[in-house]
Specification:
disordered N terminus; 2 helices; elongated; 93 residues
């Protein structure tokens, strides 16, 4: 069994894939005058435009599609981090 490099202990949560999806979502909102940090808990149906009107349905749909694209790398990263932790625990024993 190969040795695991323990010097690589940083989190994978800021992956390029995840970051790209978050930036895309923030850009879509910024084009409508909304400045918001994208988190998993954001509810797009409750977000207003800069003038208080609700987001257009097309924009909500695009944001929902982008969120689905974001969740895949998030799940993959979580699985990799879990696997890495388990291997590290196994090497200590």
């Amino acid at each position: 069994m190969a040795k695991i490099d323990r010097s690589c202990t940083g989190s994978l949560s800021d992956s390029k894939a995840g970051l790209a999806h978050r930036v895309r979502m923030q850009s879509l909102l910024a084009m409508q005058g909304s400045r918001l940090k994208i988190k998993s808990s954001v509810r797009f149906d409750e977000l207003p435009l800069w003038d208080g009107r609700p987001l257009p349905e097309e924009l909500k749909a695009e944001l929902a599609r982008e969120r689905k694209r974001l969740r895949l790398p998030e799940r993959q990263i979580a699985a990799l981090e879990t696997e890495r932790r388990e291997r590290l625990r196994g090497d200590r024993q």
